[in-house]
Design a protein that fits this description.
Elements: H1 4-15, H2 19-26, H3 30-37, H4 45-54, H5 59-64, H6 79-92, H7 96-108, H8 123-134, H9 140-148, H10 151-155, H11 166-174, H12 185-197, H13 200-220, H14 223-245, H15 251-271
Length: 272
């Protein structure tokens, strides 16, 4: 077992922090951090937990030094290939909304990237669309809304500017969270999810959205944000699965999403 001081030192280096910067984050003295790293003193329980949070690691990793060295792959599918697949499918099924939406979304998200990566953001809505198609769901409004679900919220696009029919516009509007202050977060989120739950199609897209976000949050979110996201998912997203289950044509999708989201949540809870 490696000394705790060495583990703290390595975690601090990975986080790109100096001893002084770490001390300021923890609200302790520079000398305290230095003494921990030299194993002259051990951090108490409270400081150990704060160290793990600030350094985006676990208490076990700091105390036991257990850290497997894996090479992470942040991008499983090339967004260009997904875009080609969606366009080809849309053409073969005469999905007019989707054909317009795929290029519109790519242009709207141009220059945007997924958190903590150089992956173009358009890969996210394309993944949702491809997941839908892979599950045998090829409704034009659903696939188009998958592609457009973030453009109003993230790209400053108005509802009237969406290149789609009224049904698709309604879905995208439902999936767009209103601007709000931090203190109104819970109230706004509850109303937002309530609106989505009124539509099986919007519920399906939101669950696909959350499933994809869960699969990538390990490198996009800090540990505290990961824990909050897990709790938020259990409180607000899991009930949407019941809306999908009550829609016969989405039964297969409901089963797969229940398995995927449930598995991801239990894995994160065990690791966090």
């Amino acid at each position: 077992m490696r000394p705790i001081g060495k583990n703290i030192y390595d975690a601090r280096k990975r986080a790109g922090l100096t001893q002084l910067q770490l001390a300021e984050r923890l609200d302790v003295s520079f000398q305290a951090v230095s003494s921990w790293e030299r194993d002259e003193y051990l951090p108490d329980t409270e400081n150990l937990m704060r160290l793990a949070e600030v350094l985006d690691t676990s208490v076990n990793s700091l105390t036991e030094g257990r850290k497997a060295e894996f090479v992470t792959n942040k991008e499983l599918f090339d967004w260009r290939h997904m875009k080609t697949f969606v366009k080809a499918t849309a053409k073969s099924h005469n999905m007019l909304n989707t054909l317009k939406a795929v290029d519109f979304a790519a242009d709207a998200h141009e220059g945007q990237f997924k958190k903590n990566s150089d992956i173009p953001y358009i890969s996210h809505p394309l993944t949702l669309a491809c997941n839908c198609l892979a599950m045998g769901i090829s409704e034009d409004s659903v696939i188009a809304a998958c592609l457009l679900h973030d453009v109003m919220e993230d790209c400053g696009v108005s509802r009237d500017e969406l290149p789609a029919d009224e049904e698709t516009k309604d879905l995208v509007a439902l999936l767009t969270k209103p601007e709000h202050d931090k203190e109104n977060e819970e109230k706004v989120l509850a109303e937002y999810i309530k609106g989505i739950s009124s539509s099986p199609k919007a519920s399906l897209i939101k669950c696909l959205d959350r499933c994809n976000n869960l699969t990538t949050m390990s490198w996009g979110f800090a540990r505290k944000k990961q824990a909050e996201y897990v709790m938020e998912t259990e409180k607000y997203i899991l009930p949407l699965l019941d809306v999908i289950k009550d829609t016969p044509e989405y039964n297969n999708a409901a089963w797969l999403l229940t398995y995927q989201i449930g598995s991801l949540l239990e894995t994160y809870k065990a690791l966090l």
